[in-house]
Specification:
Blueprint: H1 11-16, E1 24-32, H2 47-61, E2 68-74, E3 87-93, H3 96-104, H4 106-118, E4 119-127
Antiparallel strand pairs: 1-3, 1-4, 2-3
Helix pairs in contact: 2-4
Length: 136
């Protein structure tokens, strides 16, 4: 499996073909580096520590896009498949457009290299809800 850290070419264009006003949940799968890459302001930190730096910067700027973390947890053993992730995060965005705009924001582009310096591998998977709460 090839490691993926940055946005795949054409992925945001493909996402933009969907209903831009539809809410989306982004599944984040993260695998930290043992030591963060040098030259991104997180020199000497572990990948986990570097990702925490990115997370703090992201938390300070992302509210304008409405991203709301709804679940975060440690990943353990993979029951089906050979995946190996450290952390799984679900983030809800009120509109697909918000996520696209965020990734194109120069302020986000300025902190994205910290994320890349922290991670050995990652996935961000766009999802829409099929089942809705049946009982209040």
């Amino acid at each position: 499996m090839i490691a993926s850290i940055n946005v795949e070419e054409g992925a945001l264009d493909l996402m933009a073909k969907g209903n831009l006003d539809e809410p989306v949940i982004m599944l984040n799968l993260l695998k930290y580096l043992d030591k963060a890459k040098f030259g991104f302001g997180v020199d000497g930190l572990t990948g986990k520590e570097a990702y925490q730096v990115y997370g703090k910067k992201f938390a300070g700027f992302h509210p304008k896009y409405g991203g709301e973390p709804i679940w975060m947890g440690r990943s353990h053993n993979s029951i089906i498949g050979k995946d190996d992730w450290d952390i799984t995060i679900l983030v809800r965005y009120p509109k697909r457009k918000n996520f696209i705009d965020m990734f194109n924001d120069p302020e986000y582009k300025a902190i994205a290299p910290i994320r890349a310096a922290a991670l050995k591998d990652s996935r961000i998977i766009e999802m829409t809800q099929l089942l809705h709460k049946l009982i209040d």
